[in-house]
Task: inverse folding
């Protein structure tokens, strides 16, 4: 049974290479299909992952969950997502991405349906923890696919465009979840995204393809004559599990640096995703729809800047750390503004949410790209999973920590903790200022 499953997930084998004319015709088409399939697929993953936060206050009121219990659900999801992203990343590097990603979408749909039908705290805790695990099947196969179809010289720009799937999915989920809950009940914040995920699972399976060689095309490095540093001869060499995890990740000092920075960047990012709607409802007088729109503003604020900063990082020779540092600094002042803005001026909070979204998403994207820059394309999923694991630990810390601080002290103390995390991220990014893949 296990052997059959493993064989089914195995990477698609290479087939004889097509003629030069066919290569020039087919390569752009397949590149678009890969970008389109992973983009829409990952957008839908967000609909079934971040749909809890916009309605968490309403779930708590309906089922008598305390803020601490809501924080536990957020925390366990972040933990399992981090674990899932790391281990699923290692598995995805040795799997066919279209099968891997499609199965993950199918499983998260089933878990969303189950969560909507359940009404017991421990069942919800288990189901959302399991959802975190299967959510780890989204980013790694996307990274593997893009790493095989887009070369190192265009990586920043390509991933900048692809990365706005985070913003579109993360923004739409606030609107979809809050409107579904307001019109039909909180359960539909999970039923409707689950149904969308089932449809997208089928589409990903039909549209996404594995490596260029699996459809008779040469490797991307050959097609564009753009090779990673010191990797021209062995860029297609498959790696063992030990090489993937130990040599490419655990013994890679650059991956560790980006992972630790990502811990604090995720505290910043998810503080407003997980607790922003609740914060605005409790301190600024927002209603359920207003809380949902705050997430939309936050996420959509990062679309233009992510595209621009990815392109800028390519023009600067891949200095992802430099660009990330320059983006993080304004976020500190935006959080100060949120803290001092009195009730009655919620439009100011929306502007500041948008400002944070504008500047937080370029580092979120660039840290993942930086990890790819300093490892083999055959270890993209593993490296991204490791960096993502630290990000999820950061989300876990803020998920539970902000619940405790806001409950036992105040929201001002909670925001103060976010400000400290922002300063630490700024300090650590200084060490990445001059790092570049070609340096």
Result:
């Amino acid at each position: 049974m296990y052997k059959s499953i493993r064989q089914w997930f195995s990477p698609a084998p290479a087939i004889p290479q097509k003629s030069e004319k066919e290569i020039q015709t087919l390569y752009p088409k397949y590149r678009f299909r890969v970008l389109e399939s992973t983009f829409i697929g990952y957008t839908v993953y967000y609909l079934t992952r971040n749909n809890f936060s916009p309605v968490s206050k309403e779930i708590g009121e309906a089922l008598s969950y305390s803020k601490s219990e809501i924080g536990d659900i957020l925390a366990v999801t972040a933990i399992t997502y981090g674990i899932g992203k790391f281990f699923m990343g290692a598995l995805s590097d040795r799997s066919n991405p279209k099968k891997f990603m499609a199965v993950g979408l199918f499983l998260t749909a089933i878990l969303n349906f189950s969560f909507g039908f359940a009404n017991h705290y421990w069942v919800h805790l288990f189901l959302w923890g399991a959802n975190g695990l299967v959510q780890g099947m989204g980013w790694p196969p996307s990274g593997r696919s893009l790493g095989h179809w887009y070369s190192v010289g265009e990586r920043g720009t390509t991933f900048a465009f692809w990365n706005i799937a985070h913003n579109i999915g993360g923004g739409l989920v606030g609107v979809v979840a809050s409107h579904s809950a307001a019109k039909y009940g909180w359960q539909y914040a999970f039923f409707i995204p689950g149904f969308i995920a089932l449809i997208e699972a089928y589409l990903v399976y039909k549209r996404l393809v594995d490596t260029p060689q699996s459809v008779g095309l040469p490797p991307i490095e050959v097609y564009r004559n753009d090779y990673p540093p010191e990797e021209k001869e062995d860029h297609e060499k498959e790696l063992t599990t030990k090489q993937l995890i130990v040599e490419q990740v655990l013994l890679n000092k650059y991956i560790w640096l980006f992972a630790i920075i990502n811990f604090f960047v995720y505290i910043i990012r998810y503080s407003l995703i997980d607790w922003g709607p609740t914060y605005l409802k409790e301190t600024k007088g927002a209603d359920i729809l207003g809380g949902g729109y705050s997430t939309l503003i936050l996420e959509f604020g990062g679309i233009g800047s992510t595209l621009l900063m990815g392109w800028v990082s390519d023009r600067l020779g891949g200095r992802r750390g430099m660009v990330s540092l320059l983006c993080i600094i304004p976020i500190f002042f935006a959080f100060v503004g949120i803290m001092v803005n009195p009730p009655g001026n919620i439009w100011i909070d929306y502007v500041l949410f948008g400002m944070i979204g504008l500047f937080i998403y370029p580092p979120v994207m660039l840290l993942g790209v930086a990890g790819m820059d300093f490892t083999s394309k055959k270890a993209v999923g593993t490296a991204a999973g490791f960096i993502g694991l630290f990000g999820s630990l950061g989300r876990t810390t803020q998920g539970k920590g902000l619940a405790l601080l806001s409950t036992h002290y105040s929201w001002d103390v909670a925001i103060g903790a976010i400000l400290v995390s922002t300063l630490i991220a700024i300090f650590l990014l200084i060490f990445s200022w001059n790092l570049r893949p070609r340096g």
Observations:
- The first helix runs from residue 2 to 9.
- DSSP finds 19 helices and no strands in the chain.
- The radius of gyration is 21 Å.
- The chain has a mean pLDDT of 81.
